């Protein structure tokens, strides 16, 4: 027995009070000592400090084995801390996680559901196949757990395991367990299960028949809907929107059961609900004064009081919905009036909505909007003013009365007199107005009177569309312009630099007016258009005119060709083609509703980012590029491996390559006009993607170069 | 009075400081079985340990923190992460596995080289004595070259984890050494 004083000393040394403290600096070595300390409190402190360092972004992965040692504890708090740490590094340091496998397995049987849940969740996150062998028992066990909290986690884990190792997942047969979890009495479990199934279906649509499952479990989903968390609710609503109701009675039932969620505070829930209702409305065909329409419209209005980012998304979705149900929000125009503090992107969307929303038969509403838009043209953001100008012409043409169009024209002319900018936008808008009211001599005189004051319009105007409209007006109302010849000559001199629309307009206008112009202009333009443009349509058109003009009686033929009155336009609002609209309605509240592009049905989803960055796709691109160069061994270009690490880098290299090839060949504008061709003349069948265009132009130019040598 | 104090000290001190013991050895030697024999006094069905099992048990008023580390080749390199502050190492040998005696010996001596294990005691279990053809404790001792160990308290005990023989004897010896040398 040691003497008492020695024992006291020892006691003091070992007691909690003097257990070593971890300083707040959190040096790695200090943390490590703390983590392996024989004193539990010190270890726990050290874990906390370690996690603190981790959350501020410091790399504490070197402490992994030492932190991990502390996972085996009865202290739930400490266990949670360690799991937090392990999860953070599970993806980056999978090899270290092997050390924890046994603990995970043990923990999946822990009496505490929280721990069971953490164990199986962490395990399914670690991308090491060795772990997966040990996962079977815990996963099965937790899928059948008594506690719904554990089950709801386990069902998600199935999707994770599926992503890690599809075959294993199939072999284990846990997909069957997952499907039967749809019958779970707990709504959150049901929601997570269907979410998990949806994920799995997106990875491989052959392993389960999601559609059948949805069809056969609708009543289950509807029951779960009222009792689950908001996120689970979104999942269920999204699934419900994929369900096709048998008849109008069932559709009405679904609508009735979900309507309450239109009032949810979470806009995502609201949008998901809107989607379910809109899809089922197809069957119930309600009148516009049906209560559900009223509820729909107030739900959308309520989203308009959210932060701007969400408003933006709502506006995009509203635009799609409006195209299907144009009257839905007609009474709510004012909500969409632009506020001075709206961010630009919201302002632009609001204008799009406003012109679509307004009731063309309601003069009062149209006039109010007219004045509102007029105010907008006085704002300072150029994009906003441009949009307002466009909207004014859209509104005028929508309302259609000549007097109204005249009012809009006055606003535009006044604007042009007031400031120098926006000539492009006004020119397009005016031209549209005149095409809508071709018989109004007063409007023509007014408009052309102002356009006539522009000196060198080919330089004043910038956009292709604006220039082509101006040139068309010259041809349509030649008497309203002074020094016609000079104006046209300006465009002829600029011909080579113009884009296809303007080139076409210049050619057509000169041919049309050739009797009023000196013969040399006609000669010049025909030569330019047949030799100096690579746009095939323009070249063909010029050839045809030339031929017509050179046959006897050709003049008359050309007059006939040129003087047919163009059809009056009565709508300049873009609309979606019906089949696109149908898809967009199906995909409301998804990214498609922002881009207005439906998901490609065969697009590969779930391509892991790393395979995208480093995988085949890049290699393929790289090889294509390399082959191009090898084919043409005169071009010495350093195309080292490092040049292709990133996707965008690679495409720019390809573009550069194009430019390089184009330079010095006979076709100086190829890559540019290639794209325009694609957008403007896709009737010709040149509607491949940008990539295709690039490849073709590269290979043709390579061919040209080869021919040269 | 004196007694009262000393028991109080024992209590306080026992609950504060844990004694860390490692159970090491090749895979399949019986480490996990021994750990749970100690912990719950029963034979559990085991699966090769990936990573570790750790259990805290109170033995003779001491709080033992017993670590059973997986024995596969791929995991052995990680053993060293657990060496710090180790009071004792229990090295388990499958006495029937004559082919791997030399591997076991190599691993044992390599481990004992470690700086951090210089002060820890060593208990070797010549396990699976219930099996026919098992080497005796002294044969195992020879195979493992235990006599070479200088300046270390060590002992070898014949055991059968399945039958529960030899385990407590070994542990008793170990606890005595730890109490004497390290507390
Ligand atoms: N016959 C016999 N089998 C044992 C004994 N100890 C362990 N085993 C068996 O040996 C196998 C491996 O045991 P395990 O504890 O998992 O070894 P570890 O890899 O060292 O943890 C198991 O099948 C045990 O049942 C023993 O003393 N006698
Ligand atoms: Mg084991």
From TrEMBL, chain A:
Keywords: Membrane, Protein transport, Transport
Signal peptide annotation: none
Biological processes annotated in GO: Golgi to vacuole transport; intracellular protein transport; vesicle targeting, trans-Golgi to endosome
GO molecular function: clathrin binding
Keyword Transport on entry: yes
Domain Clathrin/coatomer adaptor adaptin-like N-terminal: 25-550
Regions of compositional bias (Low complexity) in chain numbering: 693-702
Main subcellular localisation: membrane
Localization terms from the record: Endomembrane system
GO cellular component: AP-1 adaptor complex; cytosol
Gene3D superfamilies in the cross-refs: Leucine-rich Repeat Variant
InterPro entries assigned to the protein according to its UniProt record, in alphabetical order: AP_beta (IPR026739), AP_complex_bsu_1_2_4 (IPR016342), ARM-like (IPR011989), ARM-type_fold (IPR016024), Clathrin/coatomer_adapt-like_N (IPR002553)
Region feature (Disordered): 684-703
Family: Belongs to the adaptor complexes large subunit family.
Function: Adaptins are components of the adaptor complexes which link clathrin to receptors in coated vesicles. Clathrin-associated protein complexes are believed to interact with the cytoplasmic tails of membrane proteins, leading to their selection and concentration.
PANTHER family given in the database record: ADAPTOR COMPLEX SUBUNIT BETA FAMILY MEMBER (PTHR11134)
Name used for this protein in its record: AP complex subunit beta
Gene: TBLA0B09110
From TrEMBL, chain B:
Record has Nucleotidyltransferase as a keyword: no
Matches recorded under InterPro entries: P-loop_NTPase, Small_GTP-bd, Small_GTPase_ARF, Small_GTPase_ARF/SAR
The entry's keywords: ER-Golgi transport, Golgi apparatus, GTP-binding, Lipoprotein, Magnesium, Metal-binding, Myristate, Nucleotide-binding, Protein transport, Transport
Molecular function as annotated in GO: GTP binding; GTPase activity; metal ion binding
Subcellular localization(s) per the UniProt record: Golgi apparatus
Family matches, as Pfam families: Arf
Annotated binding of GTP, by residue: 25-32, 71, 127-130
Superkingdom field: Eukaryota
Record's GO cellular component terms: cytosol; phagophore assembly site; trans-Golgi network
Binding residues annotated for Mg(2+), in chain numbering: 32, 49
CDD domains: Arl1
GO biological process: cellular response to heat; cellular response to nitrogen starvation; cytoplasm to vacuole targeting by the Cvt pathway; endocytosis; Golgi to plasma membrane protein transport; protein localization to Golgi apparatus; protein localization to phagophore assembly site; protein-containing complex localization
Major location category of this protein: Golgi
Protein family according to the UniProt entry: Belongs to the small GTPase superfamily. Arf family.
Name recorded for this polypeptide: ADP-ribosylation factor-like protein 1
Gene source species: Henningerozyma blattae (strain ATCC 34711 / CBS 6284 / DSM 70876 / NBRC 10599 / NRRL Y-10934 / UCD 77-7) (Yeast)
Gene: TBLA0E04020
């Amino acid at each position: 027995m040691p003497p008492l004083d020695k024992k006291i000393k020892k006691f003091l040394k070992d007691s909690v009070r003097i257990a070593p403290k971890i300083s707040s600096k959190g040096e790695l070595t200090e943390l490590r000592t703390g983590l392996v300390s024989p004193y539990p409190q010190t270890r726990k402190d050290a874990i906390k400090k370690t996690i603190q360092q981790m959350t501020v972004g410091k790399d504490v992965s070197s402490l992994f084995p030492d932190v991990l040692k502390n996972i085996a504890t009865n202290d739930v708090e400490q266990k949670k801390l360690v799991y937090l740490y392990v999860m953070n590094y599970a993806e980056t340091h999978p090899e270290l996680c092997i050390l924890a496998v046994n603990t995970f397995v043990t923990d999946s049987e822990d009496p505490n559901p929280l721990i069971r849940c953490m164990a199986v969740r962490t395990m399914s996150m670690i991308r090491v196949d060795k772990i997966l062998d040990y996962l079977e028992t815990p996963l099965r066990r937790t899928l059948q757990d008594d506690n719904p909290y554990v089950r709801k986690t386990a069902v998600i884990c199935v999707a994770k395991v599926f992503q890690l190792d599809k075959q294993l997942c199939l072999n284990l047969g846990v997909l069957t367990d997952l499907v039967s979890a749809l019958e779970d009495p707990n709504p959150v479990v049901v929601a997570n299960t269907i979410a998990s199934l949806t994920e799995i279906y997106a990875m491989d649509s052959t392993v389960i028949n999601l559609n059948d499952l949805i069809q056969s479990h609708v009543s289950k989903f509807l029951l779960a809907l009222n009792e689950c968390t908001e996120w689970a609710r979104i999942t269920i609503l999204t699934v419900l929107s994929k369900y096709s109701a048998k008849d109008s009675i069932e559709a009405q039932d679904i609508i009735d059961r979900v309507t309450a969620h239109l009032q949810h505070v979470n806009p995502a829930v609201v949008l998901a609900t809107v989607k379910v209702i809109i899809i089922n409305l197809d069957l119930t065909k309600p009148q516009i004064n049906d209560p559900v329409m009223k509820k729909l419209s107030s739900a959308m209005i309520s989203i308009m009081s959210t932060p701007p980012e969400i408003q933006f998304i709502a506006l995009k979705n509203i635009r799609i919905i409006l195209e299907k149900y144009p009257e839905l929000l007609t009474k709510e125009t004012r909500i969409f009036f632009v506020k001075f503090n709206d961010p630009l992107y919201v302002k632009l969307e609001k204008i799009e909505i406003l012109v679509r929303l307004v009731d063309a038969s309601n003069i009062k509403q149209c006039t109010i909007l007219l004045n509102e838009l007029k105010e907008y043209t006085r704002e300072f953001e150029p994009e906003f003013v441009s949009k307002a100008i466009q909207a004014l012409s859209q509104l005028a043409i929508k309302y259609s009365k000549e007097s109204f169009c005249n009012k809009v024209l006055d606003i535009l002319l006044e604007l042009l007199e007031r400031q120098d900018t926006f000539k492009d936008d006004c020119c397009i808008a005016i031209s549209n107005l005149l095409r809508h009211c071709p018989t109004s001599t007063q409007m023509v005189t007014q408009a052309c009177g102002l356009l006539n004051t522009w000196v060198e319009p080919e330089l004043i105007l910038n956009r292709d569309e604006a220039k082509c409209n101006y040139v068309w007006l010259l041809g349509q109302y030649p008497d309203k312009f002074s020094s016609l010849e000079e104006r046209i000559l300006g465009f002829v001199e600029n011909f080579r630099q113009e884009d296809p629309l303007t080139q076409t307009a210049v050619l057509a206008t000169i041919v049309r007016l050739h009797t009023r112009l000196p013969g040399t202009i006609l000669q010049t333009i025909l030569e330019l258009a047949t030799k100096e443009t690579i746009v095939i349509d323009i070249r063909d058109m010029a050839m045809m005119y030339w031929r017509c003009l050179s046959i006897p009686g050709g003049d008359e033929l050309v007059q006939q060709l040129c003087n047919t009155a163009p059809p009056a336009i009565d709508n300049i609002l873009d609309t979606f083609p019906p089949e696109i609209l149908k898809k967009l309605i199906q995909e409301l509240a998804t990214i498609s509703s922002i881009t207005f592009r439906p998901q490609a049905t065969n697009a590969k989803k779930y391509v892991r980012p790393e395979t995208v960055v480093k995988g085949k796709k890049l290699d393929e691109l790289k090889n294509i590029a390399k082959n191009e160069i090898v084919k043409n061994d005169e071009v010495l270009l350093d195309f080292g491996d490092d040049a292709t690490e990133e996707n965008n880098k690679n495409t720019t290299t390809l573009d550069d390559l194009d430019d390089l090839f184009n330079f010095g060949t006979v076709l100086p504008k190829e890559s540019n006009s290639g794209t325009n061709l694609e957008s403007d003349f896709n009737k010709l069948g040149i509607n491949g993607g940008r990539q295709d265009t690039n490849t073709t132009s590269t290979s043709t130019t390579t061919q040209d170069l080869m021919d040269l040598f | 009075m004196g007694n009262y104090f000393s028991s109080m000290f024992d209590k306080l001190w026992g609950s504060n400081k844990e004694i860390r013991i490692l159970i090491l050895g090749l895979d399949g030697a019986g480490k996990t079985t021994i750990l749970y024999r100690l912990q719950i006094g029963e034979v559990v069905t085991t699966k090769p340990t990936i990573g570790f099992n750790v259990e805290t048990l109170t033995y003779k008023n001491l709080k033992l923190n017993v670590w059973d580390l997986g024995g596969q080749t791929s995991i052995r390199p990680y053993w060293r992460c657990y060496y710090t502050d180790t009071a004792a190492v229990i090295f388990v040998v499958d006495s029937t596995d004559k082919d791997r005696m030399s591997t076991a010996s190599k691993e044992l001596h390599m481990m004992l080289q470690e700086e951090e294990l210089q002060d820890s005691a060593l208990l070797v279990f010549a396990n699976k004595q219930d099996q026919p053809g098992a080497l005796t404790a002294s044969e195992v001792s020879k195979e493992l070259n235990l006599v070479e160990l200088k300046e270390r308290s060590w002992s070898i005990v014949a055991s059968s984890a399945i039958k529960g023989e030899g385990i407590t004897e070994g542990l008793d010896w170990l606890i005595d050494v730890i109490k004497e040398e390290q507390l």
